[in-house]
Model the fold of this input.
Amino acid sequence: MAASSEHFAGLMMWRLTVRHGSEVKRRTLDSLEEAIAEMERRAEAIRAEGPLDEVTMFRSYGPERRVAARLELTGPGRIRRPEAGLDVMGDGRLVPYRGTLFKRELEPERGESAYEAVRAAVSG
Done:
């Protein structure tokens, strides 16, 4: 019975995946509030590292076009779990989105932060 309740508890958790450079880190959190707070903490730490440099390969990519980190939040459940996240751009902007496979950029409501837009996307 304990394994069954542990399995059920695992289905109620939120997972935050942070892709920053070549590192991928995953963290499981008990509540949406904890997950959003951790997302904000991690994103602000990445922004504090400063802007990315321009990169030139076949074209030039300025910091505004480069993604410094991607933070993805996956909600509880097995089927049709809520998924949203944000990209920390090389110039420090935060770009919230819904979905992970088929991402759709979110437009925060007037006065709403990127974190609040992600919260709204996974809540409703």
In short: The longest strand covers residues 67-74. The CA atoms of residues 63 and 90 lie 4 Å apart.
